[in-house]
Amino acid sequence: MPLVEFHNYSMGFKDDDGNVSNLIDNLSFSIDEGKALGVVGESGCGKSMTSLSLMRLLPDAAVVQSGKILFDGKNVLEMSEKEMEVIRGNRLSMIFQEPMTSLNPVLTIGNQIGECLLLHHPDLAPDEIRARTIRSLESVGINNAEARLSQYPHEFSGGMRQRVMIAMAIINHPALLIADEPTTALDVTIQAQILDIMKGLKGDSGGLMMVTHNLGVVAEICEEVVVMYAGRAVERGTLKAIFDEPLHPYTIGLMSSIPTMTSDKSELPAIPGSVPTIYDFGKGCRFADRCSKCMERCMREVPKSLLVGKDHIVACWLYPEGEVV
Amino acid sequence: MEKGGPLLKVEHLTKLFPVKKTRFFEEQRHVHAVEDVSFELYEGETLGIVGESGSGKSTLARAILALTKVTSGTVIYRGEDITDFRVPPAKRKLLHSELQMIFQDPYASLNPKIKIGEAICEPMLANGQARNHDEAVKKTRHLLEIVGLRAECFDRFPHEFSGGQRQRIGIVRALAVNPRVLFCDESVSALDVSVQAQVLNLFNALKKEFNLTYVFIGHDLAVIRYISDRILVMYLGKVMEIARYDQLFSDRAHPYTKALVSAIPEPSTAARKERIILEGDIPSAVNPPEGCRFCQRCFMARPECFEVEPDFYEVEPGHFVRCPYMKGGE
Ligand SMILES: Nc1ncnc2c1ncn2[C@@H]1O[C@H](COP(=O)(O)OP(=O)(O)OP(=O)(O)O)[C@@H](O)[C@H]1O
Ligand SMILES: Nc1ncnc2c1ncn2[C@@H]1O[C@H](COP(=O)(O)OP(=O)(O)OP(=O)(O)O)[C@@H](O)[C@H]1O
Ligand code: SF4
Ligand SMILES: [Mg+2]
Ligand SMILES: [Mg+2]
User: Fold this and answer.
1) For residues A286 and A303, what is the distance between their CA atoms, to the nearest angstrom?
2) Which residue in B165, B193, B225 has the most chain A C-beta atoms within 10 A of its own C-beta, making it the best mutation to test that interface?
3) pLDDT in tens, B257-289
4) Chain B residues within 8 A (CB-CB) of chain A?
5) How far is CA A14 from the centre of its chain?
6) Domain of residue B80, CATH code
7) Predicted structure pTM score
8) Do both A152 and A177 map to the same domain?
9) Which of the two residues, B160 and A238, has the higher pLDDT score?
10) Nearest bound ligand to CA A249?
11) Domain's final residue, options A171, A204, A225
12) Which of A36, B10, B95, B199 sits CB 3.0–4.6 Å from A208 for a disulfide?
């Protein structure tokens, strides 16, 4: 049984008049125990809303429209807030996109991490909490952890704060860790340190859901990939399938528009236009108005997600043959 | 200006910011934002400046453009000392149009209540690039089209544009006054990769069309390498390396550059080389380390590195490195 399964999940936002506009449309994917899945796409494609849906932490204006999100076989969309509190920060844990706003500035680092532990293990003795807190800080490469316990977030650099966030997220040994852009605000040398730590954790943690717009980060850590565009999973498959044989025009466009350390200096094959907002989605394929391969059918009909190869699913009318998934 | 000489020459430029004292008798300390930076910029080239956050990239550009007063050093433009723009008013006006900066956040530099078109016409008129308002409007519409915005955008307000469009507006605003050198500070960093590619292509196309010279500042080495002919690598206010873009992978590259290159996660499934992971954070620019600026994090550091500040060596033609162990011949 997979650890997490999104089943035709759809959500949107309601405006002041109560009209709902769809963002995430029919999203399906799963993560197995011990596996790392990368969720990639540009800004506004619905990556964070996907992770917040699983955590049941969507903003007020958000509306779940249909589908299921199974965690440990249970639909989180049907759980009570009480049940969620038991698994959140425990079996299901998340590193948020903004590390600066996620730490409480008036509490010491030691208190904040200890708090996470105590919340789910109220019987632990203070000594044990202290010991485990120190161990968790050490596991994310913070030297001198004991002395650091009594310091406040502002005494930590950006990279250090991100380590604290990771320590906090893994202290209860979650079955699934969601990391939403865990390195986006950091310099590359610090990013390399954090990715190194996350790779080390992969062995002993359960599953990892890595949300990022950085394809390099995905290639570094993940075994499987979901490419999102305007709220839809346009392509998913193994890392190899997505990176070495991308099929969807958006995936191909995304890959080739990034300058790498070895690319030549010829003109970059850019995708024209930009990601639409939820009020500008077309009726058919949401990528249609930017797609160089767009056909008449694309404007009218939503492309189906079809299995086109081993573990390789694409939603694009260029590939109309395949098993429906 | 001598023929074939540099368009811009920066010599020993230093910018220190005083740190606010907490006690009266405390010794005055400084942020060493930019220290003893020297380089040359040639007509028609794109010089990239990379370095991690706080390494002094923006401050260097601001000091050259007299947006902040230099502590010491000189800036020479077309053979003339223009440090702090201490030149006669007519000349200063010319400098203000010939040397243009595109800011890190173009939205913050746009007045939300003024139509985009008017915001572009205004400096054009002030700098005498248009004789009257009609001519300014015509030029502006033309420029909007060149950067891929419709001329109708003229009458719209800043909040109606996306990040990529605002960046284009920033570019139009800079182009409006016939610049020769454009300083682009993190001009594509905030953009989605598909839009980033569009804007990078645009910069390259405009360079040819308007005969521009670029100083392109960023922290993404792959982007900077793509857009630049030569690259200047900064660390804690100092220039560690100046290299042609194809010299970055050289064995002679600075250890810091090697670490930067190795830290970039490549978007491919190819087997990766053993990565150089730097220890620790960038030290404070208030107390930069003695000796080599990079000594505390360098994977090659020897005891001397903690004591003596290395010179800048030419390790290959056109390739300068501030590390004695890259000289070769040892
Ligand atoms: N209250 C709201 N009403 C309408 N649309 C909203 C609302 N909140 C968010 N959105 C839309 O949802 C999308 C944001 O999705 P999400 O934050 O998941 O994107 P993301 O892929 O995480 O992007 P980023 O890379 O920028 O973090 C955007 O298109 C945004 O406009
Ligand atoms: N006005 C100022 N007063 C005091 N210190 C400053 C000021 N401006 C910059 N600094 C400091 O100077 C150093 C260099 O800053 P600068 O903004 O030039 O770096 P940068 O390389 O552009 O970084 P980033 O990549 O984050 O834009 C930093 O330590 C910064 O905190
Ligand atoms: S469905 Fe059509 S428009 Fe959409 S990506 Fe495929 S070819 Fe392009
Ligand atoms: Mg997000
Ligand atoms: Mg800067």
Assistant:
1) 9
2) B193
3) 999 999 999 999 988 778 888 887 788 888 888
4) 52-53, 162, 164, 192-198, 200-201, 204, 219-223, 225-227, 248-249, 259-269, 272, 275, 277-278, 281-282, 297
5) 23
6) 3.40.50.300
7) 0.91
8) no
9) A238
10) 3
11) A171
12) A36
* Mean pLDDT (whole number) for A179-189: 87
Q: How far apart are the first and last CA of chain A?
A: 17
Q: How far is it, in rounded angstroms, from Cα B61 to Cα B183?
A: 7
Each residue's pLDDT tens digit, A202-228: 766 689 999 999 999 999 999 999 999
Mutate to test the interface with A, among B149, B162, B186, B192 (most CBs of A within 10 A): B192
Could you say which of A150, A171, A192 is where a domain stops?
A: A171
R_g of chain B computed on alpha carbons = 21
| Distances A253 to A210, A229, B46, B162 between C-alpha atoms, Å | 21, 12, 26, 20
Q: Which two tokens stand for residue A102?
A: 């996620």
- A169-173, A261-265, A308-312, B58-62 — most confident range: B58-62
Write the ipTM: 0.88
Instruction: Tell me how far apart the terminal alpha carbons of chain B are, to the nearest angstrom.
Output: 40
Residue A313's pLDDT is what? 97
Task: Retrieve residue A244's tokens.
Answer: 């070495």
DSSP state of B159: G
Whether the per-residue pLDDT at B330 is higher than 60: the answer is no
Q: Averaged over A22-40, what is the pLDDT?
A: 95
Identify whether residues A224 and A103 lie together within a single domain: no
CA angle, B216 as apex, B212 and B217 as ends, to 5°? 160
Q: How would DSSP label each residue in B275-305?
A: P-PPPSPPPPSSSPPSSSTTTTT-TT--GGG
Residues of chain B with Cβ-Cβ distance to A258 below 8 Å are 193, 197, 222, 267
CA dist A244 → A112, A251, B62, B270 (Å): 43, 11, 43, 10
What is the whole-number distance in angstroms between the Cα of residue A257 and the centre of ligand 4?
20
Nearest Cα residue to atom 14 of ligand 1: A44
Q: What is the Cα–Cα distance from B46 to B213, expressed in whole angstroms?
A: 6
| Domain residue limits at A70 | 4-91+172-260+268-324
The residue of chain B nearest to residue A188, with distances taken between CA atoms, is B263
Tens of pLDDT, residue by residue over B183-232, are: 999 888 878 888 899 989 999 999 998 899 999 999 999 999 999 999 99
Residue in this structure with the two tokens 């199974």, named with its chain if needed: A70
Find the A7 Cα to ligand 3 centroid distance in Å. Answer: 23
- In-domain check, residue B139: no
Judgement on whether residues A52 and A108 belong to the same structural domain of the protein = no
